[in-house]
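During the reporting period the student researcher (J.K.) took over the structure-prediction task from the postdoctoral fellow and processed the backlog of single-chain submissions. One of the processed entries is reproduced below for the supervisory committee.
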Amino acid sequence: MLPGAWPVSSKTVASMIIGKSKRELEKMRAAGQLVGRVLQELRSMVKPGVTTIEIDRAAERMIRDAGALPTFKGYHGFPYSICASVNEQVVHGFPSNYELQEGDIFSIDCGATLDGFVGDSAITVPVGTVSTTWLDLVRVTEECLDLAIEECRPGNHLGDIGAAVQQHAEAHGYSIVRDYVGHGIGRRMHEDPQIPNYGKPGQGPKIKAGYVFAVEPMINLGAHHTKVLADGWTVVTLDGQPSAHAEHTIAITEEGPEVLTRIAQKQPVGGSIAASN
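J.K. obtained the following structure tokens:
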């Protein structure tokens, strides 16, 4: 397994999906809100000239200052606290001394473990002035996530989530990354079920109250094919076209989906939030 998106496999076993109690959901809500606040601060740092390793260091400090652990760091050997994916990089990009450039799009995937439970979320941020073509890709990816969230209701099926993403993305001429999928989440970052961003309505396991999902559309401007770079982690589009990524952690309740990583208004994160030197 990798940090962030889960490599797809044929295994999706309904009986392995772990429901969460009200007490566990409270803890997951706290972890999710922390991740949401961290991503708010990281978004504000994104501008031309900032390095992706600066953003990684800021994320780690904010998470630790809040009494949590950066879930990604050390996860199956991943060496950083965020996945930092620029332009054609889909997911699992390494933070580095790369200076963000005017016109880039920058995907930040972040996870935090607080009181034994994990929150996981991702955003794609335009850097400076970005072409309309690339901005549209980011916008539609966010819309795909919103539509997927609406399907996270008791009585629906996992296929309804993927179908919502696929239909909206393909209607705009984009392709769906098929090699990596969303996932259940709880005490571990990756739990059953796998949640593809494609599918057919009414198929797959039935969704129940108490489930918690990390839903994460990965949408490409070009073809859906990907490859992994020599570092063994960074996933890029095979054709070099840009990709956008959006993710939230969502609790399934009797009243509908609750987005645990969505922040209604800007709130401070405990400790310093300035980038380290």
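The committee noted the following: The helical segments are 22-45, 52-65, 132-150, 158-171.
J.K. will present the remaining backlog at the next meeting.
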